Amino acid sequence: MKVVWEEAIKTKLNELPENLKKEVLDFIEFLLQKHKKKSKKRKFKFDWEGGLSELKQKYSSVELQHKALEWR
């Protein structure tokens, strides 16, 4: 199936005037960038985990939640 698409694209591209071929190239670049952004979506990290561990003896989890609201 891939070959069919490639041949169809090549045929249509050859029918275009030179100035429109540049637009096609620009559009392909746009699609590639868009695809890269989707594939690089940031995943949530837990690198902050344990960041407040020194406070666990001083505050309960509920108290820490209230403190977090104050710190915002």
What attributes characterize this protein structure?
72 residues; rod-shaped
Could you explain the architecture of this structure?
The relative contact order is 0.05. This protein has a domain of 38 residues. The termini are far apart. The protein is mainly α. It is rod-shaped, with a radius of gyration of 27 Å. Helices cover 65% and strands 0% of the residues. It has three helices and no strands.
Could you write a compact summary of the structure shown?
This protein is an all-alpha fold and 72 residues long.
**Largest sheet, strands/sense/barrel:** none
Strand content: under 5%
- Structural class of the helix and strand makeup? mainly alpha
Question: Which spans have pLDDT < 50 for at least 5 consecutive residues?
Answer: none
Counting DSSP H or I runs of 4 or more residues, the number of helices is: 3
Number of strands: 0
Helix content: 55-70%
- Secondary-structure element order, N to C: HHH
* Rg on CA atoms, Å: 27 Å
Quote the distance from N terminus to C terminus: 55 Å
Q: Globular, elongated, flat, extended or rod-shaped: what is the shape?
A: rod-shaped
Rounded mean pLDDT is 84
